[in-house]
Amino acid sequence: MAVYARLLPFLRPYRWQILAGLFCLLLATPASLVHPWVWKYIVDDVVTPRRPDRLPAALGVMFGVHLFGAILAALRSNLLEKVGQRFVQDIRLAVYRRIQQQSLGYLQNQRAGDLTSRVMGDVDVLQEVVRNGTDSVLHNAYSFLIVAGSLIAMNPLLGAITIAPIGVVAVLVRVFNVRVKLLYRAGRDRLGDVGARLQENLLGMIVVKAFAREEFESSRFREATEAYRKVQTHAVNARSIFFPVVYFVGFISNILAVGVGAWLILENRFTVGGLVAYRGYWWQLYAPVQQLAQINDLIQRGAAAGSRVFELLDTPITVEDAPDAVELTGVRGRVRWEHVEFGYSDRPVLNGIELDVAPGQAVAFVGSSGAGKSTLVNLIARFWDPTSGRILIDGHDVRAVTQASLRSHIAMVQQETFLFNGTVLENARYGRPEATLEEVRAAAAAANALDFVEHELPGGWDTAIGERGVKLSGGQKQRISIARAFLTDPEILILDEATSAVEPESEYLIQQALERLMKGRTTFIISHRLSMVRGADRIVVLDGGKVAEQGNHEELLRRGGLYASMYRLQVGHLSGLLEEKPGQPAELGAVS
Question: Closest Cα to residue 572, out of 553, 547, 589?
Fold first, then answer.
């Protein structure tokens, strides 16, 4: 099948181990199938003529051949098991890298739980096929050929009668495959739905509990699991019919073998020893057939899982390095948008943006939600590519340089700070793992984080902060994020609502830290905080995906345009709040 043909490149690095395993298989399988011939010899040439002197040699042959086969089988299993483990690591890494290479636009359209299901569950099924399925198919097919040849060699007529029902099994396998192929793919998809629902609920558990929606989410999770159960039930029904029918066909062959074999003995055309050997071989004839039927079921499940894995690997990468991309070095920080347009599949976002920002300038973007503020700065780091136009850094089109070198000159401090499940030190060093502890401490001091890390956290820098930094407050997480940015020492800084999700007592400390971080860097600010926007060298007002106006705070107020209107609305709202809460610092206001 096409899916399994595509696995060959992943197995090619281990071809010598696989060939060694197959060589062991070629020798071990015949060794495990010699015994019925020895049984025939013992019955016809030892027991019947009463020659006990021949028995030790016959038993010795059985022991030696079996020991030889067992050693080779163990070696084969060891080799192929290790290949299976390395294969699954390689393909899982390939899928993970492919996901990493995708643009944010692609990832935002996917469900994290479904991607996790493909990387983990679907790849595990492929591992099971490669590790057990492939070995079992070869072993059982080889065993069947040896046994079928032995049966025909003992008695051509009896051999032909015994083997004939296998044609019926072949037809049954074909019908079964057509039935379950779609069922197994649907089952993998529904399992992905279950994983996506579970992951979303776990990440949003605070919201679920805050709104007392446990029963509602339980109902939605039940619906997802019920859809998966129904598909699996259809697959179970198919298997429940298929396997018993295969076994029954095998039993009919058993009846034919015993009946015809006994008749041949009565007609002096066969020996008792031959029938004993035949009975031993019959089991080894239909055991592989039954196992192949089960392995076929595994192969169909593997094909369904593999199709989901290769869907990820085949998804085109929309943002990738050009073949002739160069390293971006010696950055000063000049950023220019030249007639940049951008839109998602369902709506346009930016329309003809023309901006030129000098090195070291601080530029703030304001506008209503959906005006394109975050999109505008995300294009700098090539999280997306413009639909048309281009973005230049120091005269270099960002699409002409490598993404890694581009992003090494950019740092981002975002509204929703993401910290990994590890220690404070690991998260602070994330952008520069080789940094010394003293360098980390200096960055933390500049970010106003040193004091709380070393005097408030129980383990200091070695404190485990939990998944997404749940053991830290919003302000503490943000200061760790700022320390992380200080440590990378970028030429271009992006602050995307960096103070909007922190507690008031942390805001002043964070603003101080951000002011230090901005010095000497080209900075782009998206913020509703007056203190962040008002102090920018230039404020760019976006409206409907276009630049409506730009200038500094005082210039825009004098013009009386959109920014002035937004400012008056905000000031009026703030005045109302101050009347209700005297003493509230004016800097906590916001520009929409």
Answer: 589
